[in-house]
Amino acid sequence: MATDPFKIIEQAFAHASDLTGDAKIAFLKRFKKTHPDLIDQLERLLDSDRESGKTFSGSVEAAIKAATEDPGDHWLGRQLGVWKLSRRLGSGGMGAVFLASRSDDEFQQTAAVKIMGSQLLNADASSRFRAERQILSNLNHPNIASLIDGGTTDEDLPYLVMEYVDGARIDVHCDSNGLSIRERLSLFVEVCDAIDYAHRNLVVHRDLKPSNILVPRTGTPKLLDFGIAKLLDPDQLELTAPQTSDDARAMTPEYASPEQVRGEPVSVASDVYALGVLLFRLLTGHSPYDASLTTRHEIESAILGSAPRRPSDVVTSASSEAASLQLSKSNPELPLKKLRQRLAGDLDNIVLKCLQKEPERRYATARELASDIDRFLDGRAVLARGDSWAYRAKKFLTRNARPVAAGVAVIATIVALVGFYTVRLADERDKAQLAAAEATEVSDFIRDVFFSAAPRIAQGRDVTALDLLEQAEAQIDEMSEQPLLQGRLMTLIGSSLNGLGEYEKSAVLLSRAVDNIEPFAADNVDDMVSALGRLAEAQRNSGDFEPSLENRRRALALSREAYGDAHYENAAFHNMIGATLSETGRCDEAIPEYQRATEILKDAPEDYAALKLSAQATQAVCFDSLGRYAEAEAVNRSIIPEMERVSGELHPNTINQYSNLGLVLARQWKLEEAIEHFEIAVERGNIVWPAGNRFRATHKHYLSIMLGRAGDFEKALELQREIAASTLEFDGPDSISYAIRLYGSGSLSASNGDLVAAERYFREAAELADSIYGDDGAYTIMSRIYLARSLRQQGQWEQAEDMLGKVAPHIDRIGVDHQVNFNLERASLLSQTDRGEQAVTYLDAVMSLRQGTPERDPSWAQPLTQMASAYRHMGALERAKDLSERAHRIGQEGLPNENWIAALATAEYARVLAELDESAASQPLAKAARNALLSTFGPDDYRVAQLSSILNDP
Amino acid sequence: MKNWGSGDKAAGDELTPLIYDELHKRAERLFRGENAAHTLQPTALVHEAYAKLIKVDIDWQDRAHFFALAARMMKRLLINHANARLAAKRGGDAIKVTLFDDQVASADPDSDLLDLAAALKKLEAHDARKAELVEMKYFGGMTTEEISAVTNLSVATIGRDLRFARAWLKDQLSEGA
What we know:
The complex is a heterodimer.
Chain A: H1 5-16, H2 21-34, H3 39-50, H4 56-67, E1 79-80, E2 83-92, E3 95-102, E4 109-116, H5 123-138, E5 147-152, E6 158-163, E7 167-169, H6 170-176, H7 181-200, E8 203-204, E9 213-216, E10 222-223, E11 230-231, H8 245-250, H9 258-261, H10 268-284, H11 296-305, H12 311-316, H13 321-329, H14 336-343, H15 346-354, H16 366-377, H17 389-399, H18 401-407, H19 410-436, H20 440-452, H21 462-477, H22 483-499, H23 503-517, H24 525-541, H25 545-563, H26 568-583, H27 587-600, H28 609-625, H29 629-646, H30 652-667, H31 671-688, H32 694-710, H33 713-731, H34 736-751, H35 755-773, H36 778-793, H37 797-807, H38 816-832, H39 836-849, H40 861-873, H41 877-894, H42 900-915, H43 919-937, H44 942-948
Antiparallel strand pairs in A: 1-2, 2-3, 3-4, 4-6, 5-6, 7-9, 8-11, 9-10
Helix pairs in contact in A: 1-3, 7-10, 7-16, 10-15, 15-16, 17-19, 19-26, 19-28, 19-30, 20-22, 21-22, 22-23, 22-24, 23-24, 24-25, 25-26, 26-27, 26-28, 27-28, 28-29, 29-30, 30-31, 30-32, 31-32, 32-33, 33-34, 34-35, 34-36, 35-36, 36-37, 36-38, 37-38, 38-39, 38-40, 39-40, 40-41, 40-42, 41-42, 42-43, 43-44
Chain B: H1 9-30, H2 42-53, H3 60-91, H4 109-126, H5 128-139, H6 144-151, H7 155-176
Helix pairs in contact in B: 1-2, 1-3, 2-3, 3-4, 3-5, 3-6, 4-5, 4-7, 5-7
């Protein structure tokens, strides 16, 4: 038995804490008898054990927090330069802020001085502080607190002197001045303008919240605290804060977007999200998520996983009654029910569009958000309904992944998609224009339909919206005595169905709409044009291209008749006709349509600038696919500055435009310039799109291919690895996109002479593609062809032959360029295994497949080199000389100096000449080629070694 | 560091100041944002410090030893700060101006922490092992399994000891109040 009281208590505690009821009472009674001096303490301990209340974790956490706050206030009265600190205004994320004044001149001036906290004095924090200074000095906007001065204190602490804003937080300002919804919205639009201005100056704020937006008595809101803002300007990247999870912590959880919570790179869309939270708060007095969430973790989980509430639901639900009442109290003219009605519908949609989890489904820019609010304030139709164009484009890509990948060569596919992407914008604009012209009774009707069911769809998304539309459709059927109104409603609902991806249903309803409106068309041209246009769109989406074209032309004809040939709106029709034509492979017919659209819009007002750009961009895509590269290049080049002005430097269209131009340059083998443009697309894409986005990967992929062509294999492979990592994360290891990455790395490794790695990549790619799409999948076939090549180059003839045998039956599934490679590969294998006479058939096939390619086109260099090599192996030296000389000349004239592809052509020519005993001609060529190959591949490359063997003095 | 798990104490001593600095820096960074609503887990701090200091993979037991050491550092760091701040407060010049109304001040984190530390010291006098377990659990944010790896005690024993220690400390703290 222990004698130390501590031990006695411990043992008794261990025993008693497991007992309950009578057993416990009995034990305590006994203990009281044996240890009367300890019974009180034991009972207290058992009580403490039961209460779950306070934990030590809380104390420790509070202490950590306390330990990290700035001690003491020795700053007051200090003089920093001409500024004297008079009062502490507060402590922010980066240090302390003081009120300061200068009195050195005849004039008095007050300012806010922000000093970086000494406890934050590390490289990371200092660079943020400097970044803020850099950012502010570039921003000059009436709604952004401006930078006046800056420097370092005697202790080497950096400080900023900023415009002092003596005002209230924006939410407090709204409530205490009893601003109406309309006034709140106008104020909010000003904030959007400031943010948009920052974005245009390549700055993302990243920490928007009411306490960072102050409204002084003048009523002009001012944005403060760019402390964790991020510079987007590539030239100033070294000043930006590193993108670590610390960034996410540095910001306020409630206003953080899902991507920020996940610690992913932020973009313009993250600020749009925060603006949505702010708007939610200004309109309802609440957070978009359940108000009972308090811990950071709970809030973050809600941001990631829960659907935000509808503003109109929040002001009606009982839990928020108090705050809503306050809001409506401050607006005596606005009782609660009215407030709810004002929020339901458009304002709900606008807020929820900002709060989408996927950045690409939000407003693309703060300006778009502001314009939609302006539209609402003017009583026009807002854009925030249904899915965004980017979202639908993504859906299209996903839906069409297989046929597209299986049918066409990669590059061609992607060009079409970039073109497609651009076209969609015009389409969207087209719709917005038409939507604005809708009769108000129609939209009111829809709103009522939506509104009557609103409580039920609080948690719902697309599916419920579809239900609602169907419900509306049923109601329309009951109004057959008013055919025109019925037709209008059908148009509206039909195009909403189209927006939800229900193309067939949409087309059926829109055809009925056309039939309904037709008898009244003479007096209702707009209705008829709108119904036809939307029907055409639905048909195009369902793949019924011919009827779509016919209806679009009909709409155009009506519009011309009513408004004349040069009516601006006609341009949208020309544009869409062009898009449908080029989608169905009739680019030659599409080009005049685009030209017509451009002509019509030549002197059109600014509103039409985006439409005009779209016409030009798609026209360029057409030139490109017709092989008219010079024209494509000229148009692409000419519209970039205008696009940057109209859509902004970071708009997806602008970024894709850089890529489009890059592609055209690439086709002409202007590698350096192509690389420059792809680099811009990649840099800006990293800013705008979230990780895992397909466009982001696409531009990187192009850049990688171009770097490979230019011989920078290290960078090219690094990029492929980057894309592969994000593919693995977002699509998983069993996806076709991962197979494509393996294929890409394989191609680069093969070009780089790393045959073992190439074999491994292609083998993995082939197996993966086979498991997904089977033997006749495009990537299965392509990977196997190149796997065969890697095997042949390592002398594994039989395996290579097996591989080609597997591919042969499906060869018409792949693009022409790859069919060429298949035939080349067969020919090479046959010629190297002494079956030259069979090889000739395949070499002839190559020539006929490439028939349409101009003789001087640089894309001839590689196939000609390989053909020459095949003829050389079979001893047909004159033919080999002829072909390799051609390859050599194309390399000299069409490819950059010392390019490895040109060097390989020259090397082949030199080898043929050597075998023909034309040593004098061969030696200098071999030397030049060897030098070029050495500089790209290094001395250990097998191609360098092969060449050395024919040199007299290697 | 790699020797440390196998008992080389010198390696641990060398690391001590590094860990202290690193924890300090991490803690500051965590609270750069002014919102008081975050919950701060010491685990997060310690794990980040670990990730920063120990770049190479070491085995699981070694990691637990690191956390144990970090827990002690964390306690020392917090006590130093709390003492310093209390001294400053007695000086009477630190009136905190709150700019934002979402900033909620807690009762008095400094004296809370110092009380806890004092109670822990008392516990140490009675039973050093239990005090150490508390330190690892609350200042190091270690899991019971990790504590088990460092101390070679069974998970059940640790659970029992911690339960008693917790009750005992609470009792001490409520007596002091």
